Amino acid sequence: MERLIAASNNKNKLKEFDAILGSRFQIVSMREAGIDEEIEETGVTFEQNALIKARFVMERTGCAAIADDSGLEVDALGGAPGVYSARYCGRHGDDEANNDLLLKNLEGVSAPRTARYVAAITLVRPGREDIVRRGTCDGEILLKRRGTGGFGYDPLFLCETGETFAEVSMETKNAISHRRRGIEAVLAALGEEEKA
Description:
six-stranded mixed sheet
């Protein structure tokens, strides 16, 4: 099975990559590939950041790499937190503080508070053309957290099942998530490439 290095050490993202791609690729984390450096995300779009991360890993290892850059876009906030989703509160990865700030910024905004999760997925391989695709999952933002699963904004994100991403099973989330849809678009592009 071909090795594919995921440009992440986030255990939640790695689980999702493995659940979706594990039958086709052996998913390896950055740490497992011997990379301990932080990758500076200087892009202004999800696609730019995903490409920065994937190329960084490929250049360090010489192996194929996959990266995602994902986040939440809330229409009433002009698309914020967007590419700053993980560090919306000013600190990286503080889910509670990020959710608190999102709720504060949505005070007085009436339902539906439409939003979407976005994931830009990039696959880079030595000597091959980069594949960059976007997946989205539409929903709305609740004013109270519901559920104990998931991560990030999942307790506030009401998805198409009528539950939050923190209430649905991992199987359901993996079937409908923005990351799933982005990865499937990358796999479809790979399939087209193989036919050509």
